[in-house]
Amino acid sequence: MVLVTPGKAGQTALRHYSSLPMLHFLFPTAPLRGVGSKGLKPSWYDVPTLDPDQIARQPTPEGLVDGVDYVLGLIEPYVRRGIPPSRIFLVGYSQGGGLALAAALRAPRTLGGVLMLSSWVAEPLPLEFQDVPVHIFHGAEDPVVPLSTAQLCRQRLEAVGLRTSFHAYPGMSHGVCDEEVAQLAQTFYEALRT
């Protein structure tokens, strides 16, 4: 089972992943929230900064814990029906990647993995967390979330002992490319073949 948390409203970029065989996908929609001066927009949580150093020093963003509870609530019925947590993956694009990571780290059981696409670590890392594999996919030319932010996030995850993989795509902006889709499918295949 794959739960995909797109960014503010970017479900379209991820819908074509649902064509991957043998996987059941869920695409929840972010609630409407006040986003700075932009008024009400679909948003999982407040994003005061994308700077990893500032994120590490500030409290958890408003709305993130509610989003985590929502995501974990969507997963629980699948676990009760017998799907092993090790076969449940959280995928998040942009803001959704921070939510996916936060949910997987707080999950009551270790999930199969987190796949963060064009994303960042949204909060200071908790002191206790699940040891979940984290796969980072990022555009080398991303003007919204710079590649350096993703690289620093990987370093922070590894510094606390999390296993990561990192894939950067030359020429890719803040979006999705065919090479990334192929790598995503390969990541699922490798994780599920055991």
Automatic annotation (TrEMBL):
Pfam families: Abhydrolase_2 (PF02230). GO terms for cellular component: cytoplasm. Gene3D superfamilies: alpha/beta hydrolase. GO terms for molecular function: carboxylic ester hydrolase activity; palmitoyl-(protein) hydrolase activity. Residues 13-186 form the Phospholipase/carboxylesterase/thioesterase domain. Signal peptide: none annotated. Keywords: Hydrolase. Belongs to the AB hydrolase superfamily. AB hydrolase 2 family. PANTHER family: LYSOPHOSPHOLIPASE-LIKE PROTEIN 1, LYSOPHOSPHOLIPASE-RELATED. This is Acyl-protein thioesterase 1 (Palmitoyl-protei n hydrolase). It comes from Cladocopium goreaui.
